[in-house]
């Protein structure tokens, strides 16, 4: 729950208040006697009221052994405490002879680091409360509490039963939130009293130091908040020369601020029982009485016992109330993770269907960020706002999980999108890569009812500092809380963490599978390349024999063959030539598969000039060829021999597949600075994010049908018969593609039938 507006002022005052040493007040309440003992059980410190209860002045007791007061059986009960842990009490009945009568006390003894503390509370008789009496009082209360599984109903029964046992005017169950503030969630009271049910109290009302003591001591009883405190004699413990630690003392006196606070509420007696959940202070059973009221030690212990039963039952009630929601989240999570593990596309699995990602943590929107790619789901800030939010989170968030129900208070830029993202749950999937999932919740305007204006607890001093003072009024005071969303539940945070762990596991599993596949593929490729090389190399010798013997038959034995025989031999010669062309292409591809690039700085203008010279020398009609180079090509790092082959092949194809009277080819490139747009009218580019120059060869040839744009790069794939366009093995573009990929580049084509083609390629 949000604190009031001046939280910085409150925090300053609260810090100062938390420094007050309330565990070493140097005094006790007057309804009992305290004796501090050395480890040898010698009396070293006493409360200054021993005359009234024991008939002896403090001076008559100091320095004396405890056996001066107690009988041997009672001394044995004190000695047993020496073997117990610090703060664990041992209770027993004590009778002491004073000058006028025998008096009876409840003796409560515990030890600290430096001393043994014995507290004596007067009682009417020496008889102990029987188990049957205790069971009669507590048994019915426990039975009623166990009958219900509803948390609120359970806590109301708790308040009713505690009031029945102690008879106080008001009994409340008070729950803390994460900030230390709290609210009354159950109340049983006298009809004429104003209700406190539903009211909120700031963290300053029960400061951190007091909450810490409630965590250690499960019961605090103040029978008379108007009573004078009784000082200890001497003020400091002579063993340690410091004030005595009364953290576990039942008689420890109360802070004046605490007394004033409750008296302003009209309270004169106070009993507080701690409710502990997972070793943390979950809440309090706070009991108020409008007049001083004393209850016996036995009744106090029964209330403490009930508090422990309530704490145990509380875990079950909370678990039951959260169980259905947790089961729902677990079911969603299981289905979600199964779909992710089986999906080919990780992003699609995360955001489709969208609702599953949102339901995992009950969010209204989400953003999935994988490096620079961001996908939005549901109601979210826009892409730029999400990107800026992640930049901020990178500098602020140290853990893998970050959440807040008030993002604009931490990140002011979030004010503009508070309607969609006042609440943020951020999950970092990877610390190496920028992989995040962000969930959003909208602003929920809340009206908080405070028990009095909490700001009145802070008073300014003349020197500009602030102090914490008990406020005078506890009438309902309303505050409108903005810029907050519904809080993230613990089970929702656990669901997010489970998703992160599962994603990491799935990714690692996929990576392991991919690594195995890559190893197998690499091995297969090596074997295939070796086979292709060996097969093509070994096939050439018998093929050459077929060609040679067929030629000899045609030359030397043509006169003995008829026309059909001669035609058959000519076909054999033609097919062997064709076969050798195919084998040479296969051999070239296998050589490329095993080749190591010999990269060097290469001036492509010089290389292209060589290609063009060879091209013109090999064509009789080279004078009719129009080769255009709009601007000089860049210098790049590449294997110049292989890149020469790329340009030669593409240039040759450009003129080979051209039936226009006026043939031309344009060779150029698009730089990264040009954004991959090139000449928008003539040279569109489908790779706008290329990081290196995009080279192109454009012609006005016959063009390629759209459905063949991918297949032309396959080995031995020809779109025309051998008789058309000069024949060929259909391996040239496959070789070009292999060379480009060896340079970690890409090659693709755009074409219009009858207009021409543009071949693009990159060399990374």
Can you put this structure into words, describing what you see?
The strands form seven sheets. The chain has a seven-stranded antiparallel sheet. Strands 9-8-7-13-12-10 form a six-stranded antiparallel sheet. It starts with 6 loop residues before the first helix and ends with a strand. Residues about 1-15, about 675-685 and about 715-730 have low confidence and may be disordered. With about 775 residues, the protein is an alpha+beta fold. It is elongated. The chain has five domains: about 5-20 and about 130-235 and about 245-320, GAF domain (Beta-Lactamase, 2-Layer Sandwich); about 25-125, 2-Layer Sandwich (Beta-Lactamase); about 330-445 and about 490-510, PHY domain (Beta-Lactamase, 2-Layer Sandwich); about 510-570; about 595-760, Heat Shock Protein 90 (2-Layer Sandwich), CATH 3.30.565.
N-to-C span: 56 Å
Broad structural category: alpha+beta
- The name of the CATH superfamily of the largest domain reads GAF domain
The appropriate CATH architecture of the largest domain is 2-Layer Sandwich
The CATH top-level class label of the largest domain: Alpha Beta
Strand order of the largest sheet: 1-11-3-2-6-5-4
Rounded mean pLDDT score? 79
């Amino acid at each position: 729950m949000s604190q009031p507006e001046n939280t910085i002022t409150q925090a300053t005052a609260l810090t100062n208040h938390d420094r007050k040493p309330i565990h070493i007040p140097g005094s006790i309440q007057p309804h009992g006697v305290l004796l501090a003992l050395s480890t040898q059980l010698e009396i070293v410190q006493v409360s200054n009221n021993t005359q009234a209860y024991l008939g002896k002045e403090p001076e008559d007791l100091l320095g004396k052994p405890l056996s001066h007061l107690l009988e041997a059986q009672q001394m044995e009960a004190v000695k047993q405490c020496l073997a117990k842990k610090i703060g664990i009490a041992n209770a027993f009945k004590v009778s002491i002879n004073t000058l006028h009568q025998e008096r009876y006390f409840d003796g409560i003894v515990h030890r600290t680091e430096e001393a043994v503390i014995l507290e004596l509370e007067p009682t009417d008789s020496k008889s102990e409360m029987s188990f049957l009496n205790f069971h009669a009082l507590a048994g019915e209360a426990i039975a009623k509490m166990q009958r219900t599984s509803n948390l609120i109903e359970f806590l109301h029964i708790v308040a009713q039963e505690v009031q029945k046992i102690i008879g106080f005017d008001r009994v409340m169950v008070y729950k803390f939130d994460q900030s230390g503030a709290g609210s009354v969630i159950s109340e049983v009271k006298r009809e004429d009293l104003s209700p406190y049910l539903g009211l909120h109290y700031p963290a300053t009302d029960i400061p951190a130091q007091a909450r810490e003591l409630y965590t250690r001591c499960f019961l605090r009883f103040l029978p008379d908040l108007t009573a004078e405190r009784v000082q200890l004699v001497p003020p400091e413990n002579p063993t340690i020369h410091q004030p005595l630690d009364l953290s576990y003392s039942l008689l420890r006196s109360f802070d004046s601020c605490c007394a004033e606070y409750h008296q302003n509420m009209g309270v004169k007696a106070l009993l507080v029982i701690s409710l502990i959940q997972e070793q943390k202070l979950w809440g309090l059973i706070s009991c108020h009485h409008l007049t001083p009221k004393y209850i016996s030690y036995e009744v106090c212990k029964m209330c403490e016992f009930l508090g422990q039963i309530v704490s145990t039952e509380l875990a079950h009630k909370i678990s039951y109330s959260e169980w259905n929601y947790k089961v729902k989240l677990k079911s969603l999570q299981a289905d979600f993770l199964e779909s992710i593990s089986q999906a080919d596309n990780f992003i699609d699995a995360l955001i489709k269907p969208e609702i599953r990602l949102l339901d995992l943590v009950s969010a209204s929107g989400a953003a999935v960020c994988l490096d620079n790619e961001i996908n939005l789901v549901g109601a979210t800030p826009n892409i730029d706002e999400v990107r800026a939010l992640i930049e901020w989170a990178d500098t602020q968030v140290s853990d893998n999980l970050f959440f807040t129900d008030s993002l604009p208070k931490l990140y002011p830029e979030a004010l503009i999108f508070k309607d969609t993202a006042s609440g943020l749950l951020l999950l970092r999937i990877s610390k190496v890569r920028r992989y995040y999932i962000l969930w959003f919740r909208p602003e929920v305007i809340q009206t908080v009812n405070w028990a009095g204006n909490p700001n009145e607890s802070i008073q300014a001093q003349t020197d500009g500092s602030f102090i914490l003072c008990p406020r005078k009024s506890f009438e309902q005071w309303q505050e409108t809380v903005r810029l907050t969303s519904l809080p993230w539940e613990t089970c929702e945070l656990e669901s997010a963490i489970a998703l992160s762990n599962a994603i990491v596991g799935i990714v690692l599993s996929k990576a392991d599978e991919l690594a195995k596949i890559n190893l197998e593929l690499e091995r297969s490729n090596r074997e295939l390349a070796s086979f292709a090389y060996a097969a093509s190399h070994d096939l050439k010798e018998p093929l050459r024999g077929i060609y040679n013997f067929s030629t000899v038959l045609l030359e030397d034995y043509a006169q003995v063959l008829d026309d059909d025989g001669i035609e058959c031999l000519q076909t054999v010669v033609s097919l062997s030539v064709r076969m050798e062309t195919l084998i040479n292409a296969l051999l070239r591809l296998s050589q490329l598969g095993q080749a190591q690039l010999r990269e060097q700085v290469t001036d492509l203008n010089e290389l292209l000039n060589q290609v063009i010279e060879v091209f013109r020398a090999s064509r009789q009609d080279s004078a009719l060829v129009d080769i255009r180079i709009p601007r000089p090509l860049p210098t790049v790092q590449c294997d110049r021999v292989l890149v020469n082959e790329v340009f030669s092949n593409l240039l040759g194809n450009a003129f080979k597949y051209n039936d226009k009277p006026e043939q031309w080819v344009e060779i150029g490139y698009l730089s990264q600075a040009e954004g991959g747009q090139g000449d928008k009218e003539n040279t569109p580019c489908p790779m706008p994010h290329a990081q290196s120059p995009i080279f192109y060869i454009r012609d006005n040839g016959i063009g390629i049908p759209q459905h063949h744009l991918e297949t032309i790069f396959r080995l031995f794939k020809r779109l025309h018969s051998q008789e058309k366009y000069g024949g060929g093995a259909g391996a040239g573009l496959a070789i070009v593609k292999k060379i480009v990929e060896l340079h970690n580049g890409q090659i693709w084509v755009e074409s219009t039938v009858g207009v021409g083609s543009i071949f693009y390629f990159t060399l990374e």
